[in-house]
Amino acid sequence: MLILFGILVIILSVILGLIVLIQNPKGGGLSASLGGFSNQLMGVKQTTDVLEKGTWLFAALVGILCIVSPAFIPKNAGSSSANDDLLKGVSTPKPATTPATNTTAPMPGAVQPKADTPK
């Protein structure tokens, strides 16, 4: 469900960005780029009204999806962290430590100490 919300938010955000980029702050925008054809189709004033309403609509949809989506996060998702256990009063056992052993290979040409051999 969260993937669906994420995809919807991305798609709506891209559409919102395109609508905002189509608009011209001085009133030209889409109506000026169509070269008079939009005047016959919808009229200049109505074109800017549609784009403004589309901006508000897509902004509201993105906002609503972002606010509603946390309600669909599963409560037991993921593993509990140590901080969650501390808040609940549960102590987690610490792993046992073992003494470190030297597992590195000797350098070539280095003098190695002789090990004590039993007699």
Summarize the structure.
The protein has 119 residues and is mostly helical.
Q: What labels would you give this structure?
A:
119 residues; mainly alpha; 5 helices; 53% helix
How does this structure look, described?
This protein is mainly alpha-helical. Helix content is 53%, strand content 0%. The N and C termini lie far apart (74 Å).
- Can you count the helices? 5
Largest sheet: none
Give the helices and strands as they follow along the chain.
HHHHH
- Poorly predicted regions are none
- Portion in beta strands: under 5%
Question: Terminal Cα separation, in Å?
Answer: 74 Å
The overall pLDDT, averaged over residues, is 74
What is the percent of helical residues?
A: 40-55%
Structural Rg = 33 Å
- The shape, in one word, is elongated
- The class by helix and strand makeup works out as mainly alpha
Count of DSSP strands: 0
Per-chain topology:
Layout lengths: L1 H21 L6 H5 L3 H5 L2 H25 L13 H7 L31
Helix pairs in contact: 1-4
